[in-house]
């Protein structure tokens, strides 16, 4: 839009200079030709956006300028267009129509001030085009800087998110390790002390049969047994919470990475049923053992995913091993038993490699 306005301003300047130079009636025709030249250039540029069309228009206008001297007053439009295209080497060609008019002693050179003013107008048109080019370059540079800053900001936000996720993982790992240590301490120390006390109380019950001592010892023994059961449940829960399924499966798959390309995808929440954790971990161990023994492929894919209604696990390789439909293997039967024990389903396929696919509904009774 700015280029259109500037071209029309240069056109109007040429028409005003033409009117001030001569009062002949043909200035109307010359002005119309100048308007047609300028507006057609604008229309062609936006219709075709082709440099060849622009150069063709400039050559045509230059040739027309040789035919009639009043058309020289519209040369600033051509000089603006050439400068806009950064074709500075072609600028001297614009002097040819002036040289031709001077050679035939054209009335254009009867007075000097129109010639000087037209020359100044051509120089100003080229300077205006040059400033436009600089402004466009600065604008492009500014937009590139904005894009770069936005990209850097997005990258920084991504790095911050990764750092926060890493910190969360570190805190979670430290918490799980502390829970595991507490569970081990309770089991090794408090559990052993309670077990010893229960044995001693049982021995006293055997020795002292008289009441009320026997009843009091029985009450103490029952309390000790209840405390022991509560400690066992607490230690069991702490141990379940301390199991990081993602990291545990990664450790199991580590021994495959030396011989296979392992793709591991984990997409599960933090609140996972303990039975599911141990089931998935056992399946991963059994599947890893089978792959090491039987797989002749190069790639292993493992996916653990949590869906709204069920947990899913998939282990696949690109080997050529086949399932023994008649006898099967102990490992496959063990996997089936584990999954069915908590209400899940499992299937095996040997099409395009060996594949294990299992799913465990979340609402199955016994999952906790």
Automatic annotation (TrEMBL):
GO CC annotations, alphabetized: membrane
E.C. numbers: 2.7.13.3
Transmembrane parts of this sequence: 9-35, 55-76, 88-105, 111-130
GO molecular function, one term: ATP binding
Keywords of this entry: ATP-binding, Kinase, Membrane, Nucleotide-binding, Phosphoprotein, Transferase, Transmembrane, Transmembrane helix, Two-component regulatory system
Signal transduction histidine kinase subgroup 3 dimerisation and phosphoacceptor domain segment(s): 178-242
PANTHER family: NITRATE/NITRITE SENSOR PROTEIN NARX-RELATED, NITRATE_NITRITE SENSOR PROTEIN NARQ
Descriptive protein name: histidine kinase
Organism of origin: Agathobacter ruminis
